[in-house]
Amino acid sequence: MGVGAGGHQRSVLLTLGRLPVSLELARAFASEGFRVVVVDSMQWHLCRASNAVSQCIKVPSPKKAPRAYEQALLSIIKEQEIDWVVPVSEEAAYVTKLKNQLPANVQLMSVDHELWLGLHDKYTGLSLCKRSGLAVPETQLLTERLALETHASGALVIKKRFTAAGKGLQFVQSGAPIPRLSQPNEWVVQPRLLGNELCVFSVFNHGTCTLHTTYKALLMDGTVSVAFEYCDPPASLVSWLQGFGEATGYHGMASFDFMQNEHGEWCALECNPRATSGLHFTCGVQVMQALLEGTLQPREKPTAQHLMEFWSCFTLAFSSRTRRSIQYDGAVGLKALFRCLRSCKDISWSPSDRLPFLLMPLLSAPLLWLSVRHKQSFATSAVADISWPPHARDHDDG
Fold first, then answer.
1. What is the pLDDT of residue 398?
2. 181-213: per-residue pLDDT in tens?
3. pLDDT tens-digit readout, 353-391
4. Dihedral (C-alpha) 61, 66, 68, 73: value to the nearest 10 degrees?
């Protein structure tokens, strides 16, 4: 598959290299004969140590210098003779702006910028789903809610419209005053659901859901899961994904957080038009085929039904605050953590590509330093320089 007409080796560009999902995709493409090129604004990252990657190229930060970033990508696509461009995470907000500037022979595995951003926006994305008849919780702008009441008539969740890794998430108890936050139009309010929760990773090919997998969190580092368990998908979730594809014509990878309401109905809390950890429960080659060929992939239970980010789990042992809250398989605290470490498979380990796992502490050191320096979670630091919106001085809506 990675060899085209005349024996030309096809090339794929992954637009982020620091995340485990980037590594999973790189290995999948390389295993099928593709030449894998990875760009990242970090000099050192997870994919740089992988033998699946042919070349790593440092580019400007899309958040700090979006125009320079876009120009760098266009140059790399031309110079490296790229055939496919695959956005991985939050940087897709900037990559999708290039859709109409790419050479005719280059395919972007995503939608146009307006649709991507509309889905990433927790207000407009869920509004689109609601208009399409898909189950979502009532979602309002904070300004709209404050116009109706100053104290919560029920338990609420407040979150930023554009955010990742749960940054800024707030819970308001019933009867408590609703906080008056700065820029209230940049926050959304939802009723707090307390039912079962599931996450979904999926691949769409021009509106058809070609692959999906369902999982739930086992261990949390703040609001980010670092260990996961595969789950069989409820039929209603499969129908929801099909309806989403038909309503949006979505193309590329997308992930969703679902929770049951008081009636047992599965509601999408938010849409994330990017890859998430559920990708690791699939066969990487299946993801590649679902993306590039658009072939419907059979749903198979993964060989490992419990996965973890080993180093993220390991570091939980050094936080007394986090240690006390760890629960796993009937155990609590350090006992629960070590039981998790014994029973879960790491998402980055591969016996044929060992260095990314072994060097991860060193490769992640810059992100760890940012986390300590800014007193924020590692997950927040990991997307700080690729998230939307760009810094105001560099913002160009054109």
1. 36
2. 999 999 999 999 999 999 999 999 999 999 999
3. 999 999 999 998 888 888 778 777 777 788 889 999 897
4. 80
What b/e string do you get for 343-374 counting C-beta neighbours within 10 Å, with b at 16 or more?
ebebbbebeebeebbeebeebbeebeebbeee
Residues composing the chain: 398
Overall pTM > 0.70: yes
Q: What is the CATH number of domain 1-110+364-398?
A: 3.40.50.20
Peptide bond into 103 cis (omega under 30): no
Domain extent listing, the chain? 1-110+364-398, 140-191, 197-363
DSSP class of residue 270?
Answer: E
Q: Is 116 helix (H, G, I), strand (E, B) or coil?
A: helix
The residue whose two tokens read 């996961």 is: 228
Interhelix angle 124-131/235-248, rounded to 10 degrees, is 100
**Which two three-digit tokens encode residue 134?**
């898909």
Residue 303 contacts by C-beta under 8 Å, 6 or more apart in sequence? none
* Residues ≥6 apart with Cβ < 8 Å to 187: 141, 142, 158, 159, 160, 161, 168, 181
Where does the pLDDT of residue 336 fall: very low under 50, low under 70, confident under 90, or very high at 90 and above? confident
Among the listed residues 263, 254, 277, 320, the one whose alpha carbon sits nearest the alpha carbon of residue 92? 254
Dihedral of the CA atoms 80, 103, 295, 274 (nearest 10)? Answer: 80
Distance (Å, whole) CA 84 – CA 52: 16
Q: Is domain 197-363 classified as CATH 3.30.470.20?
A: yes
